[in-house]
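Narrative summary of target 7.
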Amino acid sequence: MDMTLKVTSALSDPTRYSIYLYISERKQKVSVQDIAEEFHIHPNVARLHLSKLEEIRVLQSEYVKTGKGGRPGKRYIPSEEIVQLSFPPRDFRLLSDLSVASLAKLGEEGFKVLVEVGYEYGKSLVKPYLKSHDLSLLELSQAEKLHILSEIATSIGFSLDESISDTNQINFHYDHCPFNEIAQLEPLYICGLHNAFLKGMFEALYSVEEFKQEENILNDCSTCRYHVIVTN
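Modeled conformation, tokenized:
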């Protein structure tokens, strides 16, 4: 209960919550001075906000040499630890662990089911988005499609960085897997689910000729990186 009160109290401050979102979306470590300048606040106020966020374990810090001599400077990054709240108390992490473990016991058939569900769910997210924003798929530009993919992915924990090498090739990656803890236990199943989910999103917007994962965080890479070839 004490931790629940700490988390809700810390994140109820609009500036502090904005700082957390800012750091979670960046790919680089940030300092107290970075936050002070970005949010136009005194460094002491920035330090207090960062300390509060670290206290509830949504951020973690490390000391980094600045290259300017003197003591190493403190830098903040999003924590890999899950902070979960539910009212009334529910352990949804346990439910997800048991569900994935159950599918894993089914072997190839369980993997097939998980991939099918992931694909259909990813695909199903696009249509409601288009409807709620009064958009027509036939009228969307390449840039608009990529923006839609990024927004939907971000809403469920993926922060996608994308680029277009030409009109038919898209490269994208994400650095923080939203299900990293479960993926450590069942990497084949969770990575298969993620790939199918992302492919479903793409195929709801494009005619996909090739969808390929080139790098994987679980294989000691710094990011999960994908290459996609589309025909529209």
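The longest helix spans residues 187-205.
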